[in-house]
Amino acid sequence: MRLGCRAGSGQATQPARTRRAGGPMFHNRMPRYDVLSQEAMATLDRGWRRLMTEIGVEFMDDRALELFRQAGQRVEDHTVFLDPDFVLAQVAKAPREFDVQARNPAHSIHIGGDSMAFGAVYGPPFVRQGDVRRDATMADFTDFTKLAQSFSVLDSAGGIICEPNDTPLDSRHLDMTYALQSLTDKVYMGNVVSGVNARDTLAMTEILFGSREAIEATPATISLINCNSPLRWDDRMLEAQFEYSAAGQPVVLTPFILMGAMSPVTIPAALVQQIVEALSGIALSQLIRPGTPVIFGSFLSNIDMQSGSPTFGTPESGIGLLCTGQIARHFGLPFRTGGGLTSSQVADAQAGYEALMTMMPTFLAGANWVMHSAGWLEGGLVAGYEKFVVDIEILQMMQAEFTPLEIDEASMAFGAHEEVGHGGHFLGAAHTMERFRTCFYRPLLSSSENYERWMRNGGNDANARAEGIYRKKLEEYVAPDLDPAIAQELQEYVIRRRAELGD
Prior knowledge:
By secondary structure, the protein is an alpha/beta fold. It has a domain at 98-401: Trimethylamine methyltransferase-like (TIM Barrel), CATH 3.20.20. The protein contains 18 helices and 24 strands. β22 (376-377) and β23 form a beta hairpin. The relative contact order is 0.14.
């Protein structure tokens, strides 16, 4: 017997990391938390249809405009006024679920259904180590990549884990892609700064996986295409989208909405705008290559109306996240949202509770592709080493909590009652001794020592313990095997392309 909750558990439950598409994945088999009524969904449906038809969406790329024009859509300057039924017909061409291969088949992932895949933080130009906040370097990028490889709860290092500011701007994508390919054997994200960078990522992926045909048959990258909200897809993102979609690689079409700045302040208005932006981008991918995989993206939060600063881990973002899951399922699309987001400058209590405020609805909504699962600080400006470990703990705990409870005769432990009797204790009972190593979640970071023992062991708080954990992981890191011939070919490509790019 299996129940969709964990109340009253006394039986060991391990995270449901079962095999699918050749790799260990977490499958969220708990019920989804739908918050929108049928009436609310119908109102949102009318809203996005009107916005798409009357206001339209800007596409700052002539190829995109021509594809829409050929498909019978009204185009004025750079604005496309989309027929909602046409858009839905395009959306229907996208697969509901798909696989993404890693160079180690055990780390390949499945996107869609009840599968959840988790990647590290993406994009920060700064890092924090303890009390020091500084520019990110290539050494930081490689260290975070190693940490992502070292924690099995992460399915991907992500893409731009941090921006290595000590490497040339025009060629750093080559170094980052090679690091992701060589220091991990997990799925990685493609570079989207330009069409050139996307083509380089694809060329290096073809080397790693053997051919263009191999990665078109089963995708090997996932790439983030952000909308320049409100209602504009810019030229750089579209250049990258054309490259990846033409190659059959999944793209995450993500409206970047901070309510009050990039959208109206009401959650329903933001949801309507998010639908228009995401579906319009998905429609373009299907025009580029019908049937190419896509992910309905969401990055929805709000600003502080006193300071104008972005805020994360807010109640509004949590509600929006839950709504997004229900909306994506309505359209039959896999979706991306959530993560360990926070506005905090350091890995303090605020960072912890705001990250949980985002990660809990991520699981309740059943997001399929979760970026920023580890390391996000200061509204995404900073990748934090200690925060990386804090987030790993949160993620592991969430996976344990969202593993459905197994109830059978053995878990009833009637024999333990017979052995212990009235007024006894179960610590030494046979039932306990058989299960004590696995019966409860064992924390990576948390401390439950009594005060005296905690003081004898140094009196370290969570940040100090997190520092010890990540430093030990880096010391123990062993690079996954990579065929020397492939490694050499990749290195030669990086050297040649760096010269061609003028660096």
